Amino acid sequence: MLxxxxxxxGIFTGILYxxxxxxxxxxxxxxxLGAVYETVVAQELKSKGFRLYYYDNKRIGEVDYLIDDxxxxxxxxxxxxxxxxxxxxxxxxKFLAVPDYNVKQAYVLSNEHKCFTKDNVTYMPIxxxxxxxxxxxxxxEDLYF
Length: 145
Description:
Mean pLDDT is 83; it is low at 137-145. Helices cover 23% and strands 23% of the residues. A six-stranded mixed sheet has the order 1-2-3-4-6-5. It is globular. It contains four helices and six strands. The protein has helices at residues 9-17, 22-25, 34-47, 90-96; strands spanning 53-57, 61-69, 74-80, 106-110, 116-118, 121-125. It is an alpha/beta fold.
């Protein structure tokens, strides 16, 4: 499955909201900023040299990004959320439950301002994507949050 992103978040936001940038500037939670957040993450990951992988399976669902996790010969899933229900992620839960994938950790990036880990899923603010690096993306000590 292929997923396309516009390479410029500013142009993309202008297309979505025209001259009404207020929802983005004020982080209005009633406005769905999911597409904007996914584009921000795509642009940041690509600028750091990550290859962008997207997972979509009819049985499991979709996971926004998969990053190579060379340390465990697996993938590191990233889910991007923009709403208040950022801890609800059934596709990610199903993905983590597949034993053959050998996935031990996942990240959910959202507009929440707290960092915490629950059931092998680390929740963090969207802006923490700047601390992911291709040499140690799965190592918590390499994520300075």
